[in-house]
Amino acid sequence: YGDASGDPAALAVGAANEVLTHDGTDFDWAAASGFDVSSITGATALATQPASDDEIVISDGGVLKRLDIKHIQNTPAFHGYNTTTTALSSGAWTKVPIDTEVFDSDGTFDSTTNYRFTPGIAGYYFLWGEVKIPGIDDNEGLQTMIQKNGAFIGGQSMIWSTGTDNALGTTTINSVYSDTNDYFELFAYQNSGDSQNYDGVETGVTGNTHFGGMRISGV
After folding, report:
1. Angstrom distances, CA of residue 77 to CA of 104, 126, 148, 182, 196
2. Which of 25, 63, 66, 137: CA 20 to 30 A from 19?
């Protein structure tokens, strides 16, 4: 390299934090200035939700690295609800058949056989579930719980009382750590003495009986 004269010896050593630049004619030293939007191909704003394999550039202790958007999204995530006329037996804990998905970001919820969420990515997860049934009488109750690998991790109960509508619902919310092969399921229990159907879809409502979860990004 050299200056405009082409003499390599004529180009002095640059100062600290300077970079060698070329203006189309010759080389020179200039202050390092990083890059701005004009450096980006197309310089066009992204108008849609980034795909999980889209990348951003971050500084990791001063070293620039590419990072997939997936790592900062709240996924895997799903939400589903019950649509079929399915009976919940009295006096026994029963897995809730969540058979219709509103969304399932990574295909990690089984809505056809086991009705379970197996996220497959280690991290902390926020989970929610609700069960609603009609036909409950006074002093009868409904309970819900979320299980992790077949064991209780959180639940809720509600007792029917006089003067309320002839239906009963309970909600379970929990946050929990999952490794790469843990799974989660929603269960319900009622003690009316008779089988009760789940209260599923109403007009404009995506399921009074539903189950969902998502990974908590950044934890």
Report:
1. 6, 9, 16, 14, 29
2. 66
CA distance 53 to 68: 5
Q: Rounded CA gap, 202 and 125, in Å?
A: 28
- Nearest-CA neighbor of 29 among 3, 55, 65? 3
Cα dist. 104→4, 97, 101, 211 in Å? 61, 16, 7, 12
Higher-confidence residue of 93 and 205: namely 93
Residues 6+ apart with CB under 8 A from 12: 29
Given a cut of 90, whether residue 57 has pLDDT beyond it is no
Tell me how far apart the 2 most distant CA atoms of the chain are, in Å: 99
Two structure tokens written together for 19: 């970079």
Cα–Cα distance measured from residue 154 to residue 145, given in angstroms and rounded to the nearest whole number: 6
Taken in order 67, 71, 74, 77, is the CA torsion positive or negative?
A: positive
Using a cut of 0.90, tell me whether the model's pTM lies above it.
Answer: no
Q: Which residue has the higher pLDDT, 53 or 123?
A: 123
Q: Which residues contact 113 (CB under 8 A, 6 or more apart)?
A: none
What whole-number distance in Å separates Cα of residue 30 and Cα of residue 5? 19
* Residues shown for the chain: 219
Q: Which residue has the tokens 């390299």?
A: 1
